[in-house]
Amino acid sequence: QVQLVESGGGLVQAGGSLRLSCAASGRIFSSNAMGWFRQAPGKEREFVAAISWSGGSTYYADSVKGRFTISRDNAKNTVYLQMNSLKPEDTAVYYCAAVWNTGWVPPLDEREFDYWGQGTQVTVSS
What is the average pLDDT across 44-69? Predict the structure, then answer.
């Protein structure tokens, strides 16, 4: 079992920045690929970013590429999502997810992730 707790969400003006954190406990964190997903009101949950167990490979949705950065600190059992140049369309509940995976390429499909956090709200005002 892996327990995930997100933090760092809030209200920010367009063009601003936020850093989300996801603290993990339970099963060995360093053997888990991690992902960030988001769900806006009335929309399906969508992929944002993913990182391999080692941190050696990262992937991003086209909509956030160049603005968001995913990273991890295995010593702290934490994964981060640095969000810069935020836009109103980034407004959503952001979820952290984990799956036991030691491959070079992390999963990008939410159906492949086994563990989820409760989500943290990010609101970007125009």
Answer: 96
